[in-house]
Each structure stands twice: as structure tokens, then as C-alpha cells.
Design brief:
By secondary structure, the protein is mostly helical. It contains 5 helices and 2 strands, in the order αααββαα.
Length: 190
């Protein structure tokens, strides 16, 4: 295996999380335009996909903690290495925070008890009982605060994903490094 490439499992986690985020962003930005009968199913799919992304990113972090990532090219400037590490760390943080704030917000939804959440319609996904047990006024506050946090984190994700992609494209096309190949499926599996 090329020491500059990620493992096939790390690549799979990366792209599954990326696709999940893109689909969820598209859903959130478009469900206002859906016919009324399609809004709730779109929101439910958004929730299911968010929980799935949470699980995938936890697995990715566990994999990352037990497997050293490939080294960055020697030609990277110190500030580029620092920015790369910081961007990745912040991406992990916001990708964890996004579904967690959504789960908390959903658990504080005033109609949560009457509308169980089913993960992709297969089985009921638990809401956070200690939040559902709050008094209605506190639940509304929790719902609103975590809803705002969920939206703010979305903006952080947009910015960090932009930095992540811009950095990869800069290194690939301006610096002539084989940056994109580090995250493609090539060669033989590990």
C-alpha cells in the first residue's frame, strides 16, 4: 500500500460521511418547497441520515485513533500543515455536534411523544428521555436553543468543507501534489 494513501476503510468512511452530509444539506434547503405531504417524510429521512452520519463519524474517529493517517507531503509549508490539522479537527467536532444538536432538538420537539422517530422506517430510534421529561416551557427553550445551534453549526460545516476542498484542490492543481489520489480507491485493498 502507498504510505501516502488512506486505507480503504478510511476512504469509505470519508465518502459515506461526505455523501450523508451533502444529502442532508440538500434536504434541509429544499423541504420548504415540497408538497405538504412530503415535508414530514423528508424531515424523517433527514433525521435518519443524521443519526447514520453520527454513527459513521464515531466509527471513523475510532478507526483514526487506531490507524495512523498517511503523512503529508514534505513540501507543505508549516502553516498549511497546521491549517490542515485544525480544519480536520474542527470538521470532526462539527460533524459530531450537528447530529447531536439535531437529536436534542428533536427530543425537545413538542410533538415528539406523539410522533415516534423510526430510523429509515425500520425501527424506532429512541429520543433522549431526560429531555422529553422536561416541563413544556423548558423543552421549548431547549428546542429553540439547540435548533439555532444546529443551524449555526451548518454554517460552520459549509465553511470548513469549503476550506477542506479548496486546500485539496490547491495542493492537487497548483502545487502538483497527488492530493486527491490519497482519498480515491486505487490499487489493491489492504
Amino acid at each position: 500500500m502507498d504510505a501516502r494513501r488512506y486505507t480503504h476503510l478510511a476512504i469509505t468512511f470519508h465518502w459515506l460521511v461526505a455523501i450523508g452530509i451533502v444529502v442532508n444539506v440538500v434536504l434541509a434547503l429544499t423541504w420548504d418547497f415540497y408538497p405538504d405531504a412530503q415535508v414530514r417524510p423528508a424531515i424523517n429521512f433527514h433525521k435518519s441520515l443524521g443519526i447514520t452520519v453520527l454513527g459513521l463519524v464515531v466509527l471513523r474517529i475510532l478507526w483514526r485513533l487506531t490507524h495512523r493517517p498517511p503523512t503529508l507531503p514534505a513540501g507543505y509549508r508549516p502553516w498549511e500543515v497546521t491549517l490542515s490539522h485544525l480544519t480536520h479537527l474542527l470538521l470532526y467536532a462539527v460533524i459530531l455536534a450537528m447530529p447531536l444538536t439535531g437529536w436534542i432538538m428533536d427530543s425537545a420537539w413538542e410533538k415528539a411523544a406523539q410522533n415516534p422517530m423510526f430510523l429509515f422506517g425500520l425501527f424506532e430510534w429512541p429520543r433522549l428521555g431526560f429531555i422529553m421529561a422536561l416541563d413544556p416551557a423548558t423543552k421549548k427553550t431547549v428546542h429553540d436553543v439547540f435548533g439555532q445551534a444546529h443551524e449555526l453549526i451548518a454554517w460552520a460545516i459549509y465553511g470548513l468543507v469549503f476550506l477542506h476542498i479548496a486546500g485539496a484542490l490547491k495542493h492537487q492543481f497548483l502545487d502538483k501534489e497527488r492530493e486527491l489520489q490519497r482519498m480515491w480507491y486505487t490499487g489493491t485493498p489492504e
